[in-house]
Amino acid sequence: MVGRVTLVKSNLPAPRYRTLIGQHDIVERALDLLAGPPVDRRVLIHGPAGAGKTSIANEIGMRVVGAAESPATGFAAVIWLSARPAVFTADGVLRSPLVCGTLSDFMTNICVVLGSLEILQALPEEQPAMLQAMLARQPTLVIADDIDEVVDERVLSFLDSLPGRCGVLATSRMQLNFTYTLRVSPLTRPQAAELVGELNREGDEAFSDGAVAQLYKLSGGIPLAVVWSVNLLRLGYSMSYILDHFGTTASDLLRFCFFTAWEWIENSAAADLLMAIALFSAGARADMAYRAAGLVEETPDAESALVRLRRLGLVELSADRLILLPMTRTYIMGVVMPPPGDPNGDDIRTRWADALATYVRESLALSRWQDCFDRIEEERGNLEELLALACTRHGDALQFRAAVLYSDISYYLFSQGYWQLLIEHAEWALPALREQELGEEYLTVLLTWVSRVHLLRGDDESREACFAEAEQYLVTVSEEERPLYDAIIGYNRVTQLRGDPEPDAVPTLRGAAEIFRSIGRHEWLSRAVNRLGNILSANRDFDAAIMAFSEAVAVAEPFQDSAWAKDMTGIGKGNLGVLANRQQRHADAVVHLEEAREQLAQALDDAIALMELAVAHYHLGDIRKAVRFGDAAQARSADLNLGISIAESDQEWERTVLPRLREEAANEAEADDGTSRKPELDDLVRQAVDGGLLELTGLELEDLLGRQLEELLRANAVAHGSAPQWAAGDFGPRNLAARFIASQAEVIRQQVCKQDGTGLKPKYVRMMQPGGNKASALTAMAALLYAELQLSATTVAAPAVAIYIALWLLHGNMARFCGES
Question: Which parts of 202-342 fold into alpha helices (H)?
Fold first, then answer.
């Protein structure tokens, strides 16, 4: 360590900020590194354009200058050298008056600050050695701002060869080869709000919490964009205008941040890859990004392109996704990407569609629908982006590809409850399927899914319009195609009958089943005989119905490696359970329905199975289970906007009996504990968020959960005199909480983990990413956990317990939990 100094020479510029927000850790880390042994103190601060690298470097320099009486760094001089060719202001991009772009510029500025002008009078070839000798006697911190803008390759070699007593602090958008590298990340949402508050000391009401949240979403937390927005507001623009026209009003800002970086990679594989990633609005899996860019994964071209983008700070790697900051994507999509209709742009968009289509086909090849749907769910944002683009096209290759993909995911959209998407995109996708002469796909989407949504919503007029359209299409097909298409129409028409079956329903289904059997369409056959069982059951021909449902299961069982077969097995067993309820064989119904729930894919089918379990338990005398299964069923179906009852064996039971049972159970609970009913779950979640529970540690949450469990166990012991097995063991709230969580491991996994246990469900991944809404994650998770706890842990099924578990999972235990065996 060098000795103390009493004066630090400096040419640091005046800071352009009042307070440095959100970057203090990097400042302290850099100071620690620069204060280390005088051997190789070379520190690089790199990160996205506009992230605050220059401000951080300036702050570090000021801290060194301000520590003249401290041996913290021991530098006798701090020299600021900027290679930035332009500066950005509210008036636009202005050329920088002083730019150090060559080795001569660097040496001249160092000599001027140090007062060693005699070096500049020497021969050019002698100057580097003289400067090196002088710096060996006078320890100096050289700050090279925007070093990646330097065009003279000798500069980096010069900085690398400075004497050990000197230090180098450089900033760059690109990651370069320095001894130490520190990455600057965008601001978090609270930090961005703090920055807005600092800039908006006058308290302008335009910066509401909602406006700041929107600004954060658009800017991705880049400080320069936040500062720019505040300055535009001061110039007279309204906040709504800035937010609505970000891509237009921010054109100077975007060009300032990204133009040079784009010049570096233009007409290269890296440029193709960057445009491909930009098309994936929800981030891109690497293999899909390579495919969209026309690159082959695990080849030198692909790998070097990605490395180049990451070194430039243009691409982030989050989990298994390549992510662009919002501003980067805005620039690429608005300035760089060729517009729709341009051959170059259509090539990359077509490859993008093909990449998504390949991913969907791979997903549909999995052996369980839920696994298929979980995998497709991971790309839902990107799929929606493609469908939204396709609806603006008119009969071109991209729209045709997107229409086929829409057909492939139509069952996913229906079964997961994305009915509005299914209906909206049918307007352009169905004609595109017809134009491609994909009759079976067209009729499947139109009648099996779209018309069924209209049926379930009680829109008979739209449903009949679907069948009228199908009949018109049937007139145009060949004689060879007609039997299959006629059978599909007949099957779907009978499937969607309301009220008592029509006289020709059974013959129609038997005829359709024979056609499907004769041409080897096993999935259609299983569906047809299953529906035949429904009709026979409605006709009270129960023995024949049991045979039909059993055949539906038997047809599917040889194909259990296919998702449709597992689903149809679940549907067939579920219908056997419904029939058992109708025949008053409620114990048999419970067995069939529980087996069915293990294989069902549709949210609607699962809701029906839960409601039928409620009916069965009611008749078996277990009122509490009846209420809990009924509540869980209605929670499952709440988002589907159904116009019908889901209690198939006894529709009046859901309308009249369940509400009465629920009221009786609530009154009984109130009488048991002598207190008023607990607040609704949403109110408790709101209280938890407002009360700062999201900020507690995992151990603190375990303690709160344990204390809540102790209270509920005491109340349960008074009322019922029994305790669950997990309640026995070591004393203490945390131990109790740990045992309870372990006892509910499978329940928790089902709610937050993928079916294969390899990670979180996609919706929670999105919520847990930077900028994600953890409050929404808490609400969604707590609601599902509460419904399940009512079925699996009746003694302690309380909203507060569900909320504490959800908080504990959100605190970082969720991903680890899903990785457990």
Answer: 209-219, 223-234, 239-244, 246-249, 251-265, 269-279, 286-293, 300-311, 326-331
Provide the pLDDT for residue 401. 94
How confident is the model over 679-696, as pLDDT tens digits?
A: 466 777 777 777 777 777
Return the CATH superfamily for domain 9-183: P-loop containing nucleotide triphosphate hydrolases (3.40.50.300)
- C-alpha 731, offset from chain centre: 40
Domain residue spans of the chain: 9-183, 189-253, 681-818
Write out the DSSP string of 214-230. HHHHHHTT-HHHHHHHH
Helix intervals (H) in 90-161: 103-114, 117-120, 127-137, 154-160
Question: Burial letters for 590-602: b for 16+ Cβ neighbours within 10 Å, e otherwise?
Answer: bebbebbbebbbb
Do strands 86-89 and 77-82 pair parallel, antiparallel, or not at all (unpaired)? unpaired
Rounded to whole angstroms, how far apart are CA atoms 419 and 612? 24
What's the DSSP call for residue 297? T
> C-alpha angle with apex 315: 34 to 271, nearest 5 degrees?
120
Q: Which of 784, 454, 779, 782 is nearest to 641 (CA)?
A: 454
Give the separation between CA 56 and CA 43, rounded to whole angstroms: 12
Q: Residue 167: which H helix or E strand, with range? A: strand 167-172
Kindly report the pTM of this predicted structure.
0.64
DSSP assigned state of 696: S
State how far the Cα of 706 lies from the Cα of 808, in Å rounded to an integer.
12
- Identify whether the C-beta of residue 279 lies closer than 8 Å to the C-beta of residue 246: no
